[in-house]
Write the structure tokens for this entry.
Amino acid sequence: MKRIARYCLPLVVTSGVAPAQDISSAYTKLDVRRDCAHRPGKAVEDYGDWRCKGYAGTPVWLGAGDQRMYVSFGSKAKAEPAAGQTLAPFNDFYKGVVEWRLANGKPFATIMRWNVKRAADMENREVRGRALVVTRLPPGGVCHLGYVDALANPNANELAREIADRHARDFVCGKDAPIVLGKITPGEDFFSTKP
């Protein structure tokens, strides 16, 4: 099992970003059934994958199987570490908004609100948990660099932006442990590695 760094920081924290950089956000809507090219899977629990276009034409790849999703970005998205990363419980991101964190207009990270099946939801088909997944973008590897439990933290978006802005550009995929900020819903472990 991979080690995940957990931090609980105060709400007001300096960004740690050089003042010369202009940090901003851009938002794109994504609906894989409407906006993306789908390639069906070949096995029972392989739902296939989707290729989509994100901010400024950035390639977005999504794969799904065994009631879990994988999301990666860039020209070699399917070969990046993010293409093999998911959350431990059943989860999905078939439709939603992608927040692109930009430095001087160039994307360096994304924040996506994934649906996560909580332990309390296992008896029914509902998925009520929400987790923000922060993903590092090229140059360099594409991988999950941080997580925020969106139900346990009213300031979840700010925490996710903090992870992106302070860590994305220096984060080393496969070496650095993903960061978890804020509170975690009692009894949940959204952010352990996939089973």
